[in-house]
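This part of the workshop introduces the protein records we will be handling. As an example, a complete record with its sequence and its structure tokens follows.
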Amino acid sequence: MAKKVIITGSGFAGLSAASFMAKAGWQVIVLEKHNAPGGRARQLCANGFTFDMGPSWYWMPDVFERYFQQFGKQRKDLYQLTRLDPSYRLYWENDFTDIPAGTAALKKLFETFEPGAALQLEKFLTEAAYKYKVGMEKLVFKPGQSIAEFLDADLIKGIFRLDVFTSVQKHVRKHFKNAKLQQLLEFPVLFLGALAKDMPALYSLMNYADMVGGTWYPDGGMYSIVKAMYGTALELGVQFHFEECVQSIEVVNGFAQKVMTDKNEWQSDTVIVASDYHHAETNWLQPQYQSYDKTYWDKRVMAPSCLLYYIGLNKKLKNIQHHSLFFDTPFDTHAAEIYTTKKWPEEPMFYASTVSVTDNSAAPPGCENLFLLIPVAAGLQGDTEILRDKYFDIIMKRMEKRLGENLKEHVIFYKSFSVSDFKSEYNAFKGNAYGLANTLSQTAILKPSCRSKKVDNLFYTGQLTVPGPGVPPSLISGEVVAAEVNKHFHL
């Protein structure tokens, strides 16, 4: 008889782990507190508008292709991709720049900002390509259980080319002097959990993912990926139980025997937690079975949380791109408010996704779909409706000024989501949106372990463990933990 695994949570990591476990012959049961799969990548449908509630950038298409191929599927048979060109727009203080798709056009653009920048970009992206290749092959698929995993001759030989001992900021500024080019190349790491001056330059691999791998849109939105993964899991025999909230894990003699929910008791041979790691440890397990104490968690450096708005407009906008980044206020000031002073920002940078520019199905005819995001520090207090209204007014006025047209009076749908919602909806530690910061001291074996240190058959996957935050890393995390479980059970 097949061994049974209980997986808590059906976000990207949970769906991935479920499918890999089913492929290995396990009976797989997924418990999900919400009424549909997706976790933070759920979908909101209201008044004819369709919003992706969480992730909205499709980078690293090779990871998704590889994922589905392992189940005998081709991504193109599951959902279609459109490469965005321009990839996104950056609004500066007094003007804006559209970032074109393709390195040839990018080099021409860079040269307009700084003589010689085209050649520097070529060098920079060559270095980033090496980091991406080695990172994907030698680092991200490791379970982080032992330093021995990283005793690889090629990895050791290339350690200085990976730039783990210098910062993103120093690395970027070695190549480029123009402030706008510096911001363009430093912004991707803002969501990885640290200032560019504190982030290892290894993560310039994100610039390769952006500028060479490209920015794409899956037709139907990011939820198309969820539906494709969910469908794959169902075909493999995975059983899903929605609107079932886990309350505890019963451990006997160091062995997880049951998962208790608000509806059932589930016996299992092993448990994979694909929901919030901290919440599971501190709420579902007795203290003697928790791998990490309060002091440990309090010392973790978190990636940002967010203040999100899902907005429906009863008009089409004249001059907006699919992705827009509003860097028209001091970049360093807001970054410091996220990571150093940790307070609600005075003049926030923000991001706007207007999916309906690309996808007519996202909004009723003649309407526009807006997803707005302000990055904020995790763990902030004072997340009130009054505060959310204040920030909505601020960014609406900024958008109206930059676009040269009225927006707020055309709002016909409005929903906000922030720190307190991340806590209540996802049990997110400190209300984080992106997981643990990818600092050097929280990388690989220094992350919370994907295997419990106290419970023999309890494992973890997702953004608080290896390899880290983001959609592609979550797919990889599910694969990595499934391999660890199978190794443990000698399967």
